[in-house]
Amino acid sequence: MIHEVLTVDTVATSHGFLIRLRGDLFASTVPRLAQTIDAIQRVTADRIILDLADLVHIDSRGIGALVGWHRHFTNRGIKFEITKVSESVLQPLRVCHLDSILEIGPDAVLARDKLRLQRDALWKSYDFASQILAGLGEGLIAVNLDCKIVYLNPAAETILDTVEEYLIGKPLLESIEILNLTDQEFMQSLLTDSPDLEKSQGRSQREIEIRKQDGETVWVRIIFTPIFRSESRQGTILNLIDITDEIHARRAGIRHLGHLESLKRISGALRNGIDIEHMMDAALRAVKEIFDCDRAWLLYPCDPQAEAWDIQIEVTNPEFPGAHSRGQKLPITPAIRGELIKHLNTDDPVVYDKTHPFPSTAEFVQEFQIHAQLAITIYPHLGEPWLFGIHHCATERGWTPNEISLFKEISFSISEALNSLLFSRVHQAKEESLRSVLEITGGVPETEFFENKIQYVCERLGFHHGFIGQIVGEKRVSTLAVFKNSAKEQNFEFPIEGSVSQRVIGKEYQSLTGDIASQFPNDPTLMGFEVRRLVGVPLYDPSGKILGLIVAMDHQEASVPGDAQVILGVLAERVSSVIEQKRSE
To answer: What is the pLDDT of residues 450-465, one digit of tens each?
Structure first.
């Protein structure tokens, strides 16, 4: 709404001192008129006339100013009257019962003594009532029969996120954006007594959702109270009570029940599976149905430094096959790397939908026909983080706060189930590795024990070079067996300091990739050998004292096998026991 600038014209006439006002008399423009009134006090006049024919709008502060000036001048014996009032200004004065008290027009004929008493009583009551209305925690809006706003208190300003002078004289339906009712439904509540409304002494009320100026939505309970004068309706008072928290609490109760049912369903899927693999598959199927999506999946690893990723477990609708169906790992492109970093940097789901679009660099969006995605990082106790996610592919959609919250809660259950799956896999791999170790150990001469073990490690993991070493003295390693390019090599000694072995000793397990040789330029085990990946484990005696280490390395840039840690762990126990036995002999 564009406000008219208040202009004040003054002229001395034979009838008295005339003041013409044009524009809007709001709180911000009252001081301008006050300056004129103050100047009049220095002029001899027995009558002051306000011409309000061209005054467009007036707010409660402007009305209060008129009452105050009226009292001030009449107490000094100066007649102060208002004439030629526009209808837009007269209506709020009538609603406040001020049209006769302020001597507006020819009908205001009262005895001066009676008039003075009424003025004094009015001023006291107006001042008192203004303080009460301004201090109310509930909002108040007064509208006339044309449904234009003639008054609102500070609480209403706060609820609507606006100020009084912007709304006075403006149609109510142009001033507020109602989201849950049509204009016709709202006007029915405002002007009539509809039988479907809750009534109390002629009043009706509705719960209404309003969008504020800043875009935020607020729920208010509005009580409509008609204003009558001489049995003729003059307008309506709207009592606004902010019930946003109450509405949220109601919805939270419904949401909580829905959450419990969904979590119970996930729990049932995880509890009733034939085995761990079947349980995870059943849980993802339940997730897909709960969110009515086309794909639910678990990605590994959620590691920006890795070279490739794949979908380890996935359930999809047949028309939207996912990455798991390809049966191969996919490279981590710059776009994928950026997404993994984004997910690792938050504990909440990352949301993509019609209101939160994918970045333009996300080439996988079209490749897998993704219209909406929810995904969150989960952290099992073993290995790197995983990414748990769902896709909606058929059409565009948005994710509600309720769905996002539920998805996060379900991720905790999925994470616990994933722990069980990984522990099960580790246990199986450990058993297989132990059987393999026992098989290759059986019948091996004692003199070839260490050579046999390092050869097994390299061939089993696909590495070209490796050694088993023991600690001699305090700062050196002496190899017990060296394997390089499918052949045994001579044993040697080297200092621990500055070598990659220093990194391995004291750690449970090490896995390095990249240009490793440049990181340890003085390591004799790396010289003349371009190492691009390396794994290693320390060897301990029963008391926890370091005995040595097993290291395997390779020149190829490839991912480390997922069971490398398990295999090295099993062998480390066996090799440590043999070293300890030899030392005790």
So the answer is: 998 899 889 888 999 9
